[in-house]
Amino acid sequence: MEIGQLIKLERQRQNMKQEYLASGICVPSYLSRIENGLVKPSEDIQHHILMRLNIPLDSLKSEINQEKTIHFKTQFKTVINSRNKQKAETLQLDIHNYIECHPFEPNRLTLLLIETRLMLMLPDKTINIRNNLAILVEFKKEMDPEQLFYLYTIQGIVAYQNNQFSQASELFAQIFTLIKNYRMEDWEMAELYYVSSLSLLSESRYIMAIDYVKSALSYFNQELLIERSIECLIILGIAQIDTGVLKEAIATFEKAKEISLKIDSSKYNGKIEHNLGASYSILGNQNQALYHFQNSLDIKTRPDDKIVTILSLLKEYHKINDVQNAIVWLERGFEIISYLSGESKNFFKSHFNIYRALLLEENNIISIFKEALAYFEEIQDYKYCFIYCQVLAKRLADKKQYKQSTIYYQLGFNYNLKLSHVTNWEELS
């Protein structure tokens, strides 16, 4: 990076306005020209700018420390492949401290991108990530393909974590276009295939999700990254459920379970049992479904994990018209929801509100559904928009409210078009 860009980056990191940094040194417009590489500042101006940024003068003499950058990148690869949060925290702190001590390190932009990517693996880093991204976006035009790869990946993961699945998929698609003429390393491509498969799965684009997760699985198997392979098998199994190949899905989950037993790891058992329950539920084997859901719930410890299976138990009992047990799990769900936070709380509250309206025959059922539909539309989760429109339309039709029922059948159809990424009815043929 040039001197002007490094000044701009450091100023933004310190949340300092151009007017403040320029005050008494030069006019803000001249500082802007320096930061944009249009002019090179004199030594006197550089000296005063560094003093105001509280940066030692000898920082300008920093040379590219390729060995240090290579060292950080090697560790970064290990952390991403292993998804080890403790190692991620250690490396993130090491990079942060290095940047603090070497504010004019020429590779600083790349290091800031790596640091931000590591933060995505750590709790309570939301504000730091947001601040770093605001800085990084300012340098988008100056980034090379590798740096853009990192930036779009970070933005895609943030979008996915915020349940903005379409936006996440679009960002990951941009990466594939970006690197057509640029060769990324195999481990980076495996991670891209992995995170892309997650967003595609959430968007109900199952065939592409299967292709991508199989590509990631191939790399993780080759590198003997067993836990990452288990993660991929779980994603593959879920996609197989949604494409209707249930026996294959069960075989995939059983394979994941077998591998977990071999490496004596219980880390993914809750997810595996849950998805075995989901597979048997669709097959109509309620006893097996309830058995695996209960196993999953017994294994899980975190409220965010438990709520997923509690919702499935509620659905299962509601499906077989066991109202008494359904209400039991409805109440359990609302108890757990109180321990959730952020988007997770809003997401599950919307589901449980709908089931409460259905089970308790609440009078304001339309307003409850409308509120839930507005939420799912906002996060672009068109699958649940479609499902709940059909549920409400049928309930209204059963009560002979045919005009209202027709409205929601039509609305559900429109959501299904969005879910299928269809813009014109001709594309349905």
Which key terms come to mind for this protein?
single chain; 429 residues; mainly alpha; 434 Repressor (Amino-terminal Domain); Serine Threonine Protein Phosphatase 5, Tetratricopeptide repeat; 75% helix; globular; TPR-like_helical_dom_sf
What does this structure look like?
The longest helix is centred in the last third of the chain and has 18 residues, at 342-359. The protein has 22 helices and no strands. It has 4 domains: 3-61, 434 Repressor (Amino-terminal Domain) (Orthogonal Bundle); 66-181, Serine Threonine Protein Phosphatase 5, Tetratricopeptide repeat (Alpha Horseshoe), CATH 1.25.40; 300-360, no CATH class; 363-429. α5 (66-82) packs antiparallel against α6 (85-101), α9 runs parallel beside α11 and α14 (246-262) packs antiparallel against α15 (269-283). It has helices at residues 3-13, 18-22, 28-35, 43-52, 66-82, 85-101, 108-119, 126-138, 145-161, 165-178, 186-202, 206-222, 226-242, 246-262, 269-283, 286-299, 303-319, 323-337, 342-359, 365-378, 382-398, 402-419. It is an all-alpha fold and 429 residues long.
